[in-house]
Design goal:
single chain, alpha+beta, de novo design (two linked rop proteins), 2 domains, 6 helices
Length: 246
């Protein structure tokens, strides 16, 4: 048998039945990044593992194995689970899907893990959903090296606040003239909004108008979808309309 890892701080991202009585559990760990564990016998009568291996609950797990899928050895629960309801719960599932689909497996992602825990804390406290989610998306893409240049367009020109820009996949922003330009169905965002997002003013307490919130949400969705490369985020279907506060 391979060496058993000492207990690690983890969160469950997803779980599914495996064979007759076991679970395959996708987890996100502080020191090992994202990985998949087999919880043998977790569905058997008398096993406590099924009840403990839940999302949005800080856990201490140990495992062993040399293959990409490890075998779970122990489960401890150091604290109470996060209390999340309605859109805050749906938002937390959205975080889990992004981590599952974008974070490489078996690679430490300390910055992403810290950002993930911070966002769960904010959701549990009932803080502003838009600020929390936009910050998580921005920092996730930044940590993974998937953000475009927010200071220059694709030709190397500095982003101008009074200009309009469209986003080109895998390239960056291309100027289209004044911020009020209308190109039909093409998504246009102002240089001002790009600047605000790039400096994280959306989460650092600045006053935003409703239109700026919506533009930031649209832009981050473009960037996230571009990073996903066609993968579908199912949790988006759970959201009810979130009313703007401000």
């Amino acid at each position: 048998m391979s060496m058993i890892e000492e207990q690690q701080a983890v969160y469950v991202l997803n779980r599914r039945p495996y064979q007759e009585s076991s679970l395959l559990v996708d987890v996100f760990s502080l020191n090992f990044g994202r990985l998949t564990l087999i919880a043998k016998g977790a569905l058997r009568k008398g096993s406590a593992w099924s009840a403990l291996l839940q999302p949005f609950q800080a856990l201490l797990l140990s495992w062993s194995g040399r293959s990409s899928i490890k075998t779970l050895r122990s489960v401890d629960v150091p604290s109470q689970p996060y209390k999340l309801r309605a859109n805050y719960l749906f938002s937390a599932y959205y975080l889990n899907e992004l981590v599952l689909k974008l974070v490489p497996d078996n690679e430490p992602s300390l910055g992403v893990f810290s950002n993930y825990v911070d966002c769960l804390d904010q959701l549990a406290e009932g803080q502003d959903l838009q600020r929390c989610l936009r910050k998580f998306e921005y920092l996730l893409l930044s940590e993974l090296g998937l953000l475009p240049d927010f200071e220059h367009d694709i030709y190397g020109h500095k982003i101008q606040k009074d200009q309009g820009y469209k986003f080109l996949s895998q390239q960056g922003f291309e100027g289209v003239g004044k911020a009020s330009s209308n190109l039909g169905s093409v998504f246009i965002i102002s240089g001002k909004a790009i600047s605000l997002i790039s400096t994280l003013d959306i989460v650092n307490g600045s006053t935003w108008q409703k239109e700026e919130y919506l533009k930031a949400k649209q832009l981050m969705r473009y960037l996230v979808d571009d990073a996903l490369g066609g993968q579908v985020i199912k949790s988006r279907e759970l959201f009810r309309p979130i009313k703007f506060k401000g």
